[in-house]
């Protein structure tokens, strides 16, 4: 016997009626002899509100910004954090805050930035793709804007004999500067290997043949959720990553025109598997006779925004915090110096990347994520993986930026058995606000057969990867389904709906898994929670 999903209770029901309903539910549960629920009670309203409301759109105070900056400066000076060798990111004091009340005009910001640079022996850096245009080419895509947009970090370069860490220390003492720090380099957060699908080409595969192997969908309630909602073309998810296979048969029809922030052009394609794998987890096309499916298998649009080189690296000193910050702003429809204007903001931004060794927020990136939230875009960011060969007991040493900031939603990884993936980073010792730990988890680790998560990879192929990079787009896909089902859900309202659907494994440590995994079926009211029938009185 399967228990009937509980009806939503009316606030006006009498206490006696509520007691009778509870007794009936308990009796039904006992009669059915169901196994105990795999999950603890869902998060309380206070727990959900704490995650949503910690993103103060007025921004952190000057002491916090200075502390975050000093942590990056110290990490760069010691060699623990890899950074661009010549670049410093500077937030001008009058422009830091919500997007952006009372900020000076762009011309004023440009003049202020130039004056600050002169005082400290630095030069302003033009954004990528903004070399002087040829005659008659003033309207080309990527033409330089009039100056740094309000709230955005200003790129400055050190001179010979100087170093970004030293320059940033000088800048922090300048009253015109809100924050200053070196520009750390980002990394994709997945194993750098994909397993080919037995050499098969898409044309040889039956309809969605990989679905049975996509345990991250079938074991977590996606098929039940699809009975309610499969996706809408009115919803866009920005995949901020290493570029995509733009011709992949399971993705091409879903892609919007994106941008390559790394190279400063309009070609966000990439040879590396990572970005294509992430995009497929969000929205690989369902029912098209090839490959598998995404969490949102119909309708939802994917905006590729490239922040690494073609091979998923950042060796040029780009693919850095400055690029990630620009990518987040652009995906949210905000102006970015050197990039073409975009229209409506993406509902969701997926950040399956991190900054190795950086367990404090990065001011420049956190400011961009905050501005995106104000514009209606929710950013989900991977908590980070242990480095290859790093002892597993190091996983609790901290969540990597940008996931550790107050405005990002930090996503760790679960295995198929609902245990935290051994590589998935968290804070074993609770961090001191405004630095934060794991908020949610998604399936991104070891599957029931010992493999990883199957999705799209480069060259029209399919492969399996593991990492918090794989868990994050699962959560982004759940958000996309919710936004498709209810077009009024954007920004804080969308995040609230995702958090409410979270289910924490009953024996899991909240420090390791946060509020739990957002079950798409529970989120959409399908009557199950991560594929399981309602089996506890609190459900």
How many DSSP helices?
Answer: 14
N-to-C terminal Cα separation, in Å?
17 Å
Give the number of DSSP strands.
Answer: 19
Q: Roughly how many Å is the radius of gyration?
A: 23 Å
Per CATH, the superfamily of the largest domain is Peptidase S8/S53 domain
Share of residues in strands: 5-15%
What is the CATH fold-level name of the largest domain?
Answer: Rossmann fold
The side-by-side strand order for the widest beta sheet comes to 7-8-6-9-11-12-13
Overall mean pLDDT score? 84
Q: What is the structural class?
A: alpha/beta
What is the subunit organization of this protein?
Answer: single chain
CATH architecture of the largest domain: 3-Layer(aba) Sandwich
**Poorly predicted regions:** 1-33, 97-106, 129-145, 192-206
Biggest β-sheet description: 7 strands, parallel
Whole-number total of structural domains: 2
CATH top level class name of the largest domain:
Alpha Beta
Shape assignment: globular
Helical coverage, percent range = 25-40%
Can you describe this structure?
- This protein is of the alpha/beta class.
- The protein folds into 2 domains: 45-56 and 189-533, Peptidase S8/S53 domain (Rossmann fold); 62-184, no CATH class.
- It is 27% helix and 15% strand.
- It has 14 helices and 19 strands.
- It has helices at residues 15-32, 45-53, 62-78, 106-119, 164-172, 215-218, 222-226, 273-283, 321-331, 363-375, 468-485, 492-500, 510-513, 520-523, and strands at 83-92, 123-124, 154-157, 177-184, 187-188, 236-241, 259-260, 301-306, 348-351, 353-354, 378-382, 409-414, 440-443, 453-457, 461-465, 502-503, 517-518, 528-529, 532-533.
- Strands 7-8-6-9-11-12-13 form a 7-stranded parallel sheet, sandwiched between helices.
- Strand 18 (528-529) and strand 19 form a beta hairpin.
- Helix 9 packs parallel to helix 10.
- The model is unreliable at 1-33, 97-106, 129-145 and 192-206 (pLDDT under 50).
């Amino acid at each position: 016997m399967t228990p009937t999903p509980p009806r939503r209770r009316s606030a006006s029901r009498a206490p006696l009626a509520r007691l009778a309903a509870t007794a009936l539910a308990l009796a039904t549960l006992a009669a059915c002899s169901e196994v105990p629920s795999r999950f603890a009670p869902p998060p309380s309203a206070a727990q959900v509100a704490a995650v949503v409301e910690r993103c103060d759109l007025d921004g952190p105070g000057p002491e916090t910004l200075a502390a975050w900056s000093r942590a990056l400066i110290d990490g760069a000076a010691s060699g623990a954090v890899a950074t661009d060798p010549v670049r410093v990111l500077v937030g001008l004091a009058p422009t830091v805050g919500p997007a952006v009340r009372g900020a000076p005009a762009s011309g004023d910001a440009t003049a202020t930035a130039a004056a600050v640079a002169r005082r400290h022996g630095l030069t302003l850096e033009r954004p990528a793709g903004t070399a002087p245009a040829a005659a008659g080419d003033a309207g080309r895509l990527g033409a330089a804007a009039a100056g740094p947009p309000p709230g955005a970090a200003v790129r400055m370069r050190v001179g010979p004999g100087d170093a970004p860490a030293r320059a940033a220390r000088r800048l922090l003492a300048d009253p015109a500067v809100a924050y200053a720090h070196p520009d750390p380099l980002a990394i994709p957060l997945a194993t750098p290997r994909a397993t080919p699908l037995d050499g098969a080409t898409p044309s040889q595969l039956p309809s969605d043949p990989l679905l049975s192997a996509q345990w991250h969908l079938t074991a977590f309630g996606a098929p039940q959720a699809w009975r309610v909602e499969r996706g809408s073309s009115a919803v866009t998810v920005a995949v901020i990553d290493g570029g995509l296979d733009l011709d992949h048969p399971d993705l091409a029809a879903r892609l919007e025109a994106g941008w390559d922030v790394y190279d400063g052009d309009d070609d966000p394609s990439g040879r590396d598997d990572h970005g294509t794998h992430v995009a497929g987890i969000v929205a690989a096309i369902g029912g098209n006779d090839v490959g598998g499916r995404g969490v949102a298998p119909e309708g939802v649009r994917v905006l590729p925004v490239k922040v690494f080189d073609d091979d998923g690296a950042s060796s040029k000193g780009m693919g850095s915090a400055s690029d990630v910050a620009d990518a987040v702003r652009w995906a949210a429809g905000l102006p970015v110096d050197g990039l073409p204007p975009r229209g409506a903001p993406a509902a969701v931004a997926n950040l399956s990347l991190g900054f190795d060794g950086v367990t404090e927020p990065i001011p420049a990136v956190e400011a961009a994520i905050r501005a995106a939230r104000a514009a209606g875009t929710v950013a989900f960011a991977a908590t980070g993986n242990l480095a290859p060969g790093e002892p597993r007991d190091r996983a609790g040493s901290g969540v990597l930026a940008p996931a550790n900031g107050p405005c990002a939603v930090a996503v760790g990884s679960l295995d198929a058995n609902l245990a935290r993936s051994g590589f998935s980073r968290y804070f074993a010792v609770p961090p001191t606000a405004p630095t934060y730990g794991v908020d949610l988890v998604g399936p991104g680790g070891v599957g029931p057969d010992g493999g990883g998560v199957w999705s799209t990879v480069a060259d029209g192929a399919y492969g399996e990867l593991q990492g918090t990079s794989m868990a994050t787009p699962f959560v982004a896909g759940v958000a996309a389904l919710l936004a498709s089902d209810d077009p009024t859900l954007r920004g804080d309202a969308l995040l609230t709906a995702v958090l409410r659907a979270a289910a924490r494994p009953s024996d899991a440590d909240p420090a390791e898994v946060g509020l739990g995994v957002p079950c798409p079926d529970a989120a959409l009211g399908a009557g199950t929670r991560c594929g399981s029938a309602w089996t506890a009185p609190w459900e």
